[in-house]
Each structure stands twice: as C-alpha cells, then as structure tokens.
Amino acid sequence: MRTPVFDAHVDSLQRALDLGDDLGSVTGGHLDLVRGRVGGLQAVVLVCWVDPVHIEVGAARARCSRLLDQYNALLDRHPKLVTFGGNGALVEEARRHGLIAGIAGIEGGHSIEESLEHLEEFFEGGVRVMTLVWNNHLSWISSCREGAGPSTPAGLSDFGRDVVRRMNKLGMLVDLSHASDQAFYDTLDVSERPVVASHSGCRAVNDHPRNLSDDQLRALGENGGVIGAVFCTPFLDGDCAQALVRLRASAEHESIDAGSEAATFFARARFLQEAAPPLPLDRVCDHICHAAEVAGVEHVGIGSDYDGIDHTPAGLEDASRYPALAAALLERGFTEAEVEGIFWGNMARAFARATGERQQFCRIR
Length: 365
Hints:
By secondary structure, the chain is of the alpha/beta class. It has helices at 13-19, 33-39, 60-77, 88-96, 116-124, 158-170, 181-190, 214-223, 233-236, 238-248, 251-255, 261-275, 282-295, 322-331, 336-355; strands at 5-10, 41-49, 82-84, 100-107, 127-131, 173-175, 196-200, 226-229, 300-302.
C-alpha cells in the first residue's frame, strides 16, 4: 500500500545548517525530500531544535532564526518540490499539486526566550508548530526529565498558559512531546484547539519518560489531538535502549570524531545503526496498535524524529521506507482507510484545526 505521509517531526534542518546538506537533493541523513517523495511524503514538520547550551550565552533565539533561514532557503531553492504549509488549506493545496508541504516548527520553548513577542515574530517568519519544552526545564514549564529545581513549575506557570493561549490565537499547533505529565494536563486545560504529542510512544508498551501513559492517550483523544508514533528505538524498546547504552560507552564509539559536533553525532549514529541489534519493525506497530486501542485509531499519526535520533528500527532506515510500516500495519489488521488516517488524515486534521485560516508569511531578517 502506498499512502500519503504527514511526518509531524524531523530534525533535518540541523544537517542543512551545520553540514551544508541540501534537503532538496539526496543526502546522507535519514530524511531529504527526494527520498521522502519516494516514500510518499506529502507534509513534513521541519523543526528548529536548539541545543540548550545556547541559552547560557543568550543565543537560543538567534540559533533558532538561523535554522529557520534554512527552511526559508529550502522553499526558495526547490519551488517545484516543496511549498509553504502554513495551514490545513495550504497543506491540501500542496498535495493536490504534487508538492510537499514544508511546515516550520520549533522544538523547545527556550527559543522564544520568555517573550510572547518573540513567539509572534517566529509565527510571522513561518513557524506553525512549537514543542513547548525539550529535555531542559524552563522557568515556565517542566519537561518529562528529572532534575527540576524548586523554581520550576510542576506543569505550566501563568506565563506558560499565556504561551498556549497565544499559540491558539495565532494558529500554531501546540506539541506536548517532552512535557511533564502535569504540563501535559495543564496544557489540555488551557488549549481551545487540538494539540499533538508529535514524536512519542506508549508507556504501557515501554516504560520510558518520553512516552505517554494510557490516561494521557485517552485525554489526547478527548482533546481531538494526535500522538505521532516515533521511530526512536530507545523509546520503543527497553532491551534496545540498554544495548545502545553499552555501545555508546564503548571505546569504538568514543573514538569517532568527524571534526565537528554535528558531523560526529551523525558519524556515531552510522556506527550505532550498524553495530546495534536491529529492532524489528513490529515493535513500532506494537506502539501504534496500543495507541489506537486506547486513544482511538483516529488519534494516531507518525512523527519519525528522523535526523534527531541515532538508531532507527529495521526497515525504517530512511524516509523512502514509510511504505514498509504501512504494509506491516495492514498485516496487523488495520484497514487501508485506517492506515491512511495514521499516515496522513489524522495529523492533517489536527494541524488544520489548530492553524485555522491565517496565511500570513514573512521572513525574519
């Protein structure tokens, strides 16, 4: 089965900025638009992820803007391949014309530097999705990781609630992957529009803090939101996670140095992909099946986390391979209509309801 794909979370802009990759041509990463098109990609959220080290020198927003410039450059350079996916109507228009809808996102609210004005600037620059928090805790929201200090709210602060309200008003999709449980529920209490957990798994299948509990899955479904099934193997399987921990501690892994932080990350990822025991594709299906059972199949989508992870399941090594997962889901008993919903319709619906009708688009200079 070939189905259109809406991938709700990829990190490939980092390759463009730090390695000079042109995502409109074949690259050495997990995802570029050429291989994506082979796999059925029709919409993709290209996130600007900023390493928290930039916070210390007051450069998080600047780094995010540079990544957003890469998104803008991609649209300019390849107009016959990708176009601005500013809301649901523009995403559907792109699909009708055989183009990929490129959607700019931010991963981690530290990039707005505690300013609603900066949030609005990023919206005007084309951003339509923001993951509220990454693994680092902020003054206005806690992440799912340990280590929150006494100044960190258990969930959302008053400013955090204002961020969610402003995103609703602007037409930006709220993403709750990485958020603490309390921040997850606080956001659902505030948001008047559907939210997503763009790249997460199910805690009942693998007990990992980045995954959602059954109660969260049910609440997400009641909100009209969607969980994007992630391809990050440590989130999917505990034994695989332990194998990767051992390999990352090995002398061979530590000895890999490609000359820059980004190049070294991807070189080490290639080592892990080859050296780690393969995780069967069925393990991704386990998480999708569980999410569909608990939240409802209409609340499950895809959020690969391509180019943000260092090990993928067997059969999903790059963006040309989405159809392998579709075939596996059919074998697990999903109907073709349900599979198309998982790969396209469910995430497209949530994105359309969150983004509304506003289409303005200018660029941060």
